[in-house]
Amino acid sequence: MSKLETNTIDTVSGTTNLVVGSTNSSTVTFESGAATGHMYPSFFAYLNTTQSISDSTDTTLQMAAELWDTDSAFDTSTYKFTVPSGKAGKYWFYVAVQLQNLTDLDEARAMIYKNTSTRLSASRYFQGQNGTINYQAGVAANLSAGDTIEFKTRQVSGGAKNAEGTSDVTYCLGYRLGA
To answer: What is the pTM of this model?
Structure first.
């Protein structure tokens, strides 16, 4: 291993990106230990209004607001994350849901789907009393460019129930772990 010592590394005039190790490295580690090249893209999206969840139906959570989306890869109109070109790899996804005003709820679950039809993860929560419940699901997945991730919920109670729409109770997030 060689060592390069210098006082300044800067971009060429008129450019904004500095590339180090264009073909042999996907991670650059700085003296502070901070690494670049991982955990991007990342997003945090949430339900910003109450959503009615039909009984006994897998329902896509309408996460129409974002706190951040580093690569504009989460679509707030289709409620899906799409792996950007050149960003295939291992990802972590998480979804949390809060249902309101429950009575005699038999079952509720949060689910994470790949490419609309392949369920990657599901949680199950059984309720034996009235009230509001929170439940979550998380999954690590190896994805290719163009793959989509969708967040759904299902409840079985005999009627429609409401998912609460705020960024701290009904939300989804994801980020790239690496290649």
So the answer is: 0.78
